Amino acid sequence: EEPQAAFYAWLEQAGEEWREQLEVGDLVLVLDVGGGTTDLSLIAVREEEGNLTLERVAVGEHLLLGGDNMDLALAHVAAKRLEEEKGKTLDAWQSRALWQACRAAKEKLLTGKKDTAPVSVLGRGSKLIGGSVKTELRREDLDAILLEGFFPSCTKEDRPAKRRAIGLAEIGLPFVADAGITRHVAAFLAAQDIEDGFAHPTRILFNGGVFKGGILRERALEVLGSWMPEEHPLSALDGEDLDLAVARGAAHYGLIRRGSGLRIRGGTARSYYVGIESSLPAVPGMPTPLKALCVAPFGMEEGTSVQVGEREFSLLVGEQAEFRFLGSTTRKEDQPGQILDRWSDEELEELAPLDVTLPVAEGQEEGSAVPVTLRSTVTEIGTLEVHCVSREGEAYKLEWNVREQE
Q1: d(CA 86, CA 134)
Q2: pLDDT reading at 50 higher than 60
Q3: Where do the domains of the chain lie, and which CATH numbers do they carry?
């Protein structure tokens, strides 16, 4: 995922000097805020046989929150200013243009020293240039919107607000309800299964264009640093490449797979589950309850296989069937073969299902139920294979791309 790629880029850039910036016991928080998403990862520095090793110990949810949200918030400020100062109300086309203009103005203010940046939108009609409407964004707008709106001061006990569910809504992407990135970080660190219930990173690696301006990095360090104990203060890693880190890190990982460089351990970033239909009498108006069977534990390494318990399950062949697929970033102790009867939305997330018609073996009929045991493999190319093996040794393969899910 992108935070890990950013860390690989930092390793490649630091060379052998990375060992001088990190030491055993360090916990690195990778805070990746891109154009449309925010991603979080924790990487621990350990020692093995006298050598430093790196292990990814936690991965956050893929939050639809980033620079685009900031640009849209600034565009609302600019639109209100145009209406109040010049009596101009923008149509939908002009509003989209204003969004893009505010992005450019934001970048100028974040990286420059001026206190204002012009924002202009073409007018509508025959006199486009003469009819342009102009305003400005001010540095205090960035302080009010970006700092207080997206990186607000908060305690480690604060959590992101949740919007009340509406009965009818447009079908679309699952955008987060709370724009406060610092509150999402607090929730992520509190979700880690450690002794005092809250992870305390000692180093932070920033990634994403929004951090080109020092004010956002300084605010993030200020807020997150206030949660940390005095004996383990939080500090930033030097040398990050905010523009090309993900691309450089992906290329560096390719070299590592060929034996050149240090690999970050960690395996799968989630525990994975297959939905199992309960064997219960039919009840009118009530769907058959779904159970979740753990088929791959958190951190399962690529290139490894595991037996999913010894229990047999009934596999439908010769007829199209849906295989439900779920993942969890928080249930890190679940083992292959473990069955969950119930769970909260925060524990398990339903992922893309697999619709497939499995072939019928000789002597079987379409729609037959075949008793099978399960064995899982995480391949080197990032797929999870679940092999359903019948008593006769016939194997049926189900396959998901877990690298895309992560």
Answers
A1: 9
A2: yes
A3: 1-265 (3.30.420.40), 271-405 (no CATH)
